[in-house]
Write a structure and sequence with these properties.
heterodimer; A: alpha+beta; Arc Repressor Mutant, subunit A; Glutaredoxin; four-stranded mixed β-sheet; 7 helices; elongated; B: alpha/beta; Rossmann fold; Ubiquitin-like (UB roll); 5 domains; five-stranded mixed β-sheet; 17 strands; 40% helix
Chain lengths: 165, 619
């Protein structure tokens, strides 16, 4: 467990939250800013983080949960090792990104928003990543694959499977 | 912190140094290699290209050449884009490994790397950026600095008359005169609704309250629109400057910009811009030696389309669920923390500095009677030149799609253009010659919107498109009012029935009735306009709805449950190419010369075989 411990003796996850909260005044206005940082750090918003925020901002957990579930960027479950996000912005949609999404669902046997049982893949629909000139696009952990086709998606998935067996 | 004299000095010195960026006849011995760092080009490795240029120059010991990171040039389809100044040579689709050749051939030997030059639609090789058809009908006011300056260097902004408008306002104009000038220019809100900007400023000024706020709406949620992002990425200071001018005019000393968290590059550059402006003493207290003070903060959105609605945006800045407030009171009287608040969109602000510098009369001379100035569109979909275009109001759709956009690819026909995103409508071919302004778009059942302009060719099913937009609205409805929360869902279900071949004519009537109720009864703009994609497609493409309902057919094959891909045995030569490329092994038949057949149960209708067949035997 050595690497999960911080120098101060606490586990690293606690330290991240403490350091983060120090950056903000304990005002409710800061909730979304804090949640954005937590989402970025963990890839989701764990319960312990919600509890610490609740205490710090003196806000009921229910209210924090309400905000988390309202905004699509915040998630309550960890994402897979490879997060495949398929752009369903209009420019990509018109160029056929739906077919790529259907293929991803079929290959991974999960719906958007879910993670495969082995934790390897998660699938996500996004609205416009801003690379409309390369439409249709999908991203894997943020790396953009432009002018995408069902074949390119297949190749990417096959490659990941090969590297992880 | 710099004094105003020091800023003048920076401007003068830098202006000479940067003259070659705008003057192709500059006799300087220097060269600037501009590498586009907009989101599109960045995702195709432009940072690596920049690095390679720098490395190669260093290795070859070449002096007098600078490599500069810039914002978006607009022609995203040709990215990554590299421009060499002063000659203005335009290189398209540059790869990191091309850098050495460009330096050797272009810089050392003073020749051109022909294979990387751009081909125009007619196939002609074009060397210079301004010779491309794409740029000829454009007029760049909002995007003037985009692709010209380094957005991460405030000195470059200052060199191109940056913060001159602010100086003029603070030293020579009263707040009333500023508002008068904005009013006279005829500028209207670029967020979509087109409310006169000067009037909005006046309301905010007249509102009583000690603390007032200026807010910039950069929550560009329309999927397929990226105008505001490009301005923030390419010219962030022009938004800061305009927000300060607005602050001076209405009597506010604090501003907030609400940006989508999905725009990391824009957020980063805007933060750099704020930091640099603070360092120079442009943001802060006693600005330019006057007693005006102003400071600015960034607030990140978290992926909710409804937060583009101004009162929902305010809720979100205050840290809550982004649900709209009932109006009145309007934000001008009771906005952020119940204080008078002025909210404008990024593109609206980006016009302000130019209006102040060049005068309201100059601005009002551009555009049409009721809509002044230019409009930036994110041109996308089935069109050759995908990218960012800025045209004077009154330009026709045909000019944008065919002259600037270069027409429809793959020899297909234009079917419709969609403006205004999920709140807008589809414009059919018969209205291609409509001049684009706020009124004329409304008349034909669409709206200006924030500037997304998606072109669709004849392979697109309009019922499926309406379903796509409704799916979006169902996802994004905040749930506060019933007409929107429940109504959009019911509309979506009917559209789903139709696209699955289970709909009837009575469903179309029900759909039409729902559009009326939802438009009238919803609380905010999202709900009130959610039906527009359905209303406009029903108006212009009713036959397609009826085809789905009566004949259970989708002639574009886009609705999968109704589609059937078949191989014409008369045309099939049995080459097997379709079989090789089918991702699900749905094509049957063995050996060369044997005619292939599609197993309809396995087929996922991805269309790969259609595009691969050399004999056009598959439909």
């Amino acid at each position: 467990m050595g690497e999960n411990k911080c120098q101060c003796g606490n586990s690293k996850k606690d330290c991240f939250m403490k350091d983060l909260l120090k950056e903000y005044k304990p005002e409710k206005d800061n909730l979304i800013q804090i949640l954005n940082s937590v989402q970025e750090h963990y890839g989701y918003i764990p319960k312990h983080a919600q509890e610490e925020i609740s205490e710090y901002l003196n806000m009921p957990m229910a209210e924090i949960y309400g905000v988390i579930t309202f905004y699509s960027r915040f998630t309550l479950e960890p994402k897979g090792k490879y997060n495949i996000a398929i752009c369903l912005g209009t420019a990509c949609f018109v160029k056929g990104s739906e077919k790529i999404l259907d293929r991803a669902k079929e290959r991974l046997k999960i719906e958007p928003g879910q993670t495969t049982e082995d934790g390897l893949f998660s699938l996500e629909e996004t609205r416009c990543v801003g690379a409309c000139g390369l439409a249709p696009v999908f991203t894997v952990n943020g790396e953009v694959y432009g002018m995408a086709t069902v074949q390119i998606l297949d190749q990417v998935i096959d490659q990941i499977l090969k590297e992880n067996t | 912190m710099n004094t105003i004299e020091e800023i003048h000095k920076i401007r003068e010195e830098k202006k000479k140094e940067l003259e070659l960026r705008i003057n192709t006849k500059s006799d300087t011995r220097e060269k600037h290699i501009l590498v586009c760092h907009g989101t599109g080009c960045t995702s195709s490795k432009s940072p690596e290209i920049l690095e390679n240029f720098r490395k190669t120059l260093e290795e070859k010991n070449i002096e007098n050449v600078r490599v500069i990171k810039t914002g978006c040039f607009g022609l995203c389809a040709k990215g990554p884009v590299v421009i060499i100044r002063p000659e203005n040579t335009f290189y398209a689709h540059v790869k990191p490994e091309d850098c050495e050749e460009i330096i050797q051939t272009h810089i050392v030997e003073n020749k051109r790397v022909e294979r990387l030059l751009c081909k125009d639609i007619d196939g002609k090789l074009v060397e210079k950026l301004d010779e491309l058809e794409f740029y000829k009908k454009q007029q760049r006011i909002v995007l003037k600095n985009c692709g010209v300056i380094n957005p991460e260097d405030i000195d470059e902004y200052i060199a191109f008359d940056g913060y001159l408008a602010l100086e003029k306002v603070l030293k020579e104009m009263t707040p009333d005169e500023v508002i008068e000038e904005v009013t006279k220019s005829g500028l209207r809100g670029r967020g979509g609704a087109g409310f006169p900007t000067g009037k909005k400023w006046l309301f905010a000024k007249q509102a009583e309250g000690e603390q007032k706020y200026v807010v910039c709406n950069a929550d560009e949620g329309d999927p397929g629109a990226f105008m505001d992002r490009s301005v923030l990425e390419g010219d962030p200071h022009c938004v800061i400057e305009a927000m300060m001018i607005a602050g001076y005019a209405i009597g506010a000393n604090e501003g907030y910009i609400y940006v989508r968290a999905e725009y990391p590059i824009a957020v980063k550059r805007f933060q750099i811009a704020i930091d640099q402006a603070r360092e120079k003493g442009i943001l802060g207290k006693n600005i330019f030696g006057t007693d005006f003070e102003f400071d600015l903060h960034i607030r990140l959105g978290a992926g909710a389309f409804v937060c583009g609605e101004e009162t929902a945006l305010l809720e979100s800045i205050e840290g809550r669920r982004g649900q709209p407030r009932l109006k009145p009171p309007f934000p001008a009287n009771s906005g952020l923390w119940k204080c008078p608040t002025l909210i404008n969109n990024v593109e609206t602000y980006a016009n302000i500095t130019k209006i102040i510098r060049n005068g309201a009369d100059w601005y009002a001379s551009i555009g049409t009677e009721g809509s002044k100035g230019t409009k930036v569109f994110a041109l996308g979909g089935n069109v050759n030149n995908i990218g960012l275009v800025e045209v004077p109001m009154g330009t026709t759709l045909r000019e944008i799609v065919y002259d600037i956009g270069g027409g429809i690819p793959n020899k297909r026909e234009f079917k419709a253009a969609q403006t205004g995103g999920p709140s807008g409508g589809c414009i059919p071919a018969e209205y291609l010659d409509t001049p684009i302004d706020y009124e004329s778009l409304k008349e034909i059942g669409s709206m200006m919107g924030s500037g997304g302009l998606i072109v669709m060719d004849d392979s697109k099913c309009m019922v499926n498109l309406a379903k796509f937009y409704l799916g979006f609205t169902v996802d994004e409805s905040c749930g506060k009012c019933n007409p929107c929360r429940i109504g959009t869902k019911r509309m979506y279900e009917i559209l789903e029935k139709l696209t699955n071949g289970e709909g009837t004519l009575a469903d179309i009537d029900k759909l039409e009735e729902l559009t009326k109720t939802i438009s009238k009864a919803s609380v905010c703009g999202l709900g009130q306009t959610a039906s527009n994609p359905v209303i406009s497609t029903l108006k212009y493409f009713r036959n397609e709805y009826e085809e789905h309902a009566v004949d259970k057919k989708c002639s574009t094959n886009e609705c999968k449950k109704l589609a059937k891909i078949e191989i014409n045995p008369e045309l099939c030569k049995g080459c097997g190419l379709c079989q090789k490329n089918c991702p699900v092994g749905a094509i049957e038949g063995e050996g060369p010369g044997t005619k292939r057949q599609i197993n309809q149960e396995k087929c996922i209708k991805c269309g790969t075989c259609i595009s691969k067949c050399p004999f056009k035997a598959i439909k």
